[in-house]
From TrEMBL:
Residue positions binding substrate: 289, 326, 330, 358, 386
Catalytic activity: meso-2,6-diaminopimelate + H(+) = L-lysine + CO2
Active site: 357 (proton donor)
Organism: Syntrophomonas wolfei subsp. wolfei (strain DSM 2245B / Goettingen)
Keyword terms: Amino-acid biosynthesis, Decarboxylase, Lyase, Lysine biosynthesis, Pyridoxal phosphate
GO molecular function: diaminopimelate decarboxylase activity; pyridoxal phosphate binding
Protein name, entry field: Diaminopimelate decarboxylase
Entries under Pfam families matching the protein: Orn_Arg_deC_N, Orn_DAP_Arg_deC
Co-factor(s): pyridoxal 5'-phosphate
Enzyme Commission number(s): 4.1.1.20
Root EC class: lyase
Function as written in the Swiss-Prot or TrEMBL entry: Specifically catalyzes the decarboxylation of meso-diaminopimelate (meso-DAP) to L-lysine.
Recorded metabolic or biological pathway in which this protein acts: Amino-acid biosynthesis; L-lysine biosynthesis via DAP pathway; L-lysine from DL-2,6-diaminopimelate: step 1/1
Residue stretches making up the Orn/DAP/Arg decarboxylase 2 N-terminal domain: 38-292
Length: 435
């Protein structure tokens, strides 16, 4: 990120804070979010799309949701994509304006739907027939009408890890376009008194570099848009194209700028609308990774090490798959450096192991570092997305703290968990009591 540099002590600095000082003050592992970087990413995307007309950027909460983060998202004028009662609750508690909240998810419960209706969220993104019925029933009971988008599976295979592909035909998400299910969903929605269909949604996957995937999707969605107009006379207003913009993690990654994303989809939407003689829809995008990912880094303290002669040197950190499960889950790769030796040249190749009791808990394979010693501070870059939000207490490790840095200020936005926190919900049934 732009606010990262090496300071006069030769230490890594972010947001005007020496990371070695941060490690000392707040302990490790430590998640750090660079406020200016996060805000800049929000602004760039918002600006890129606004150049083409009516658009709205939503921040995908699943990437990294805390009350402080929601406050920043609100200040930047973005809306919010939430996917659970928990994310919605967090947004409510942070005072986020509900008229800018979109509620997603492939199996929202009755309670979650009711919570969303009562909170007054802008849109519910309906995923399937079951939900359509359920929502209509709830709205009828509550005597209200909910504005919705229908999630469509456009049948696009984005070039990304198969676990984070979502737009292909064989997917658990959305109404399938190719077999007529989506059209059936539209007709059903249009006939329901508790529901007002205002548009469509799709999302093809995450960590996408190929802009053609977005382009192609926009074109498919606009053709469907026109088909809806033709067959039902209904002119929809809003097209949500999901998130998915990829970011830089390691050499070889070729992320595209927000402008390139907007430039890939907006002209297609406008041209298709013109071709079909339709009004250009309001375009919504809901990026997460591209906003939070590059703005985050994680600090660890190096501890034990082990050399397998002639093969490899393992060096262990005080965290691992509990604070960053992505390497274990997706074989995700990260770049890292020694924060306290940021100026020193690499002299050895080591593999960074987590501290969990599991061989798969490896954070980085074959990382080139200066001479490593126990006590060194390792900074893993671009950990703002899907790290905290996917963290766990595996092995009963307390979750780390998170600090927000900006211009020489550092504020705690998530407290470090302690052992008591781990026991918060533990109960011992009476019959197991000692006498
Ligand atoms: N909208 C919808 C409907 C989504 O399902 C997602 C991500 C997004 C937006 C935001 O996508 P982004 O802009 O962040 O790519 N845990 C995985 C990523 C899963 C993404 C799930 N959906 C990972 O760590 O790579």
């Amino acid at each position: 990120t732009g606010t990262m540099k090496i300071n006069s002590q030769g230490n890594l600095e972010i947001g005007g804070m020496d990371t070695v000082d941060l490690a000392r003050k707040f302990g490790t592992p430590l998640w750090i979010i660079d406020e200016e970087g996060f805000r800049r990413n929000c602004r760039n995307i918002k600006k890129a799309f606004s150049l083409y007309g009516d658009s709205q950027v939503l921040y995908a909460s699943k990437t990294l949701a805390t009350m402080a983060i929601y406050r920043i998202v609100e200040q930047e004028g973005l809306g919010l994509d939430v996917v659970s009662g928990g994310e919605l609750y967090t947004a409510l508690k942070a005072g986020f304006p509900m008229q800018k909240v979109y509620f997603h998810g492939n199996n929202k419960s009755r309670e979650e739907l009711r919570m969303a209706i009562c909170a007054g969220v802008a849109r519910i993104v309906v995923d399937n027939f079951y939900e359509l019925e359920l929502l209509n029933q709830l709205c009828t009971e509550e005597n209200c009408q909910q504005e919705i988008l229908l999630r469509v599976t456009p049948g696009v295979e984005a070039h990304t890890h198969e676990y984070i592909q979502t737009g292909q035909i064989d997917s658990k998400f959305g109404f399938t376009l190719s077999d007529g299910q989506a059209m059936e969903g539209v007709k059903k929605a249009l006939s329901m008194p508790g529901i007002k269909l205002v548009g469509l949604h799709c999302h093809i996957g995450s960590q996408i570099f190929a802009m053609q995937s977005f382009q192609y999707t926009s074109s498919i969605m606009m053709d469907f848009w026109a088909e809806i107009k033709r067959t039902s006379g209904c002119q929809l207003e809003e097209l949500n194209l999901g998130g998915g913009l990829g970011i830089y993690y390691v050499a070889g990654d070729e992320p595209r700028k927000a402008e390139e994303w907007a430039k890939a989809v907006m002209p297609v939407v406008q041209e298709k609308a013109r071709q079909h003689g339709l009004k250009v829809p309001r375009i919504i995008v809901e990026p997460g990774r591209a906003i939070a990912g590059p703005a985050g880094l994680t600090l660890y303290t190096l501890g034990s090490s082990k050399e397998v002669k002639g093969i490899r040197k393992y060096v262990a950190v005080d965290g691992g798959m509990t604070d960053n499960p992505r390497p274990a889950l997706y074989a995700a790769k990260y770049q890292a450096l020694l924060a306290n030796k940021a100026e020193e040249k690499p002299v050895e190749t080591v593999s960074i192991a987590g501290k969990c009791c599991e061989s798969g808990d490896m954070l980085i394979w074959d990382l080139e570092l200066p001479w490593v010693e126990a006590g060194d501070i390792l900074a893993v870059l671009a950990t703002g997305a899907y790290n905290y939000s996917m963290s766990s207490n595996y092995n009963r490790l307390p979750r780390p703290a998170m600090v927000l840095v900006k211009q020489g200020q550092a504020d705690l936005i998530i407290k470090r968990e302690n052992y008591e926190d781990l026991l918060r919900n533990d109960l011992i049934p009476e019959r197991l009591e000692r006498d």
